Amino acid sequence: MAGYRKLGRTADQRKALLRNQVTNLLYHGKIVTTECRAKEVKSIAEKMITLAIKEKDNFETVTVKAKVARKDKDGKNVKEAGSNGKKVTVYDEVEKQVKKDKPSRLHARRQLNAYLYDVTEVPTENAGKKRSTKKVDLANKLFDEIAPKYADRKGGYTRIVKIGQRKGDSAMEVLLELV
Questions:
Q1: Which is nearest to 118 in space by CA: 140, 144, 90?
Q2: Which of 175, 104, 95, 176 shows the shortest CA–CA distance to 143?
Q3: 118 in any annotated domain
Q4: With 70 as the cut, is the pLDDT of residue 1 above it?
Q5: Does 86 fall in a domain?
């Protein structure tokens, strides 16, 4: 007997389906799917959350100097005449606090990013415009939001709630959500 469900798909289709559903579960917090798929997604998602919990505090804070463009009252970059007569943007040096991952957390971050798909967030008021979109770092979300929430919990980060049978093929539909 196999150690996993095949879900009636070839290996590459199955891997893509599970990656997509795990990504959506971690991004949205809940998904609606069939019971068999939910059980597979649950095991993968719980392993990822456990990995994030183990490494959530494994970083050091470092102070770095960064160059930031000077802005005027309207929020536009300030420009001054350079040595050759061209207008050049003026930069100020600013000290920033940055989280620097220790090696084990960096490895965990790379493992998470290797499995999860990239998520692009589009604001509702600017729908259809490419300029206002931004990429969401799900590994950061796991370390900063999800892991602290479940830090004192020993497993069981997700819950499966049965909804009922799907109209087309009578497959049992469930709601898979983070607890």
A1: 140
A2: 104
A3: no
A4: no
A5: no
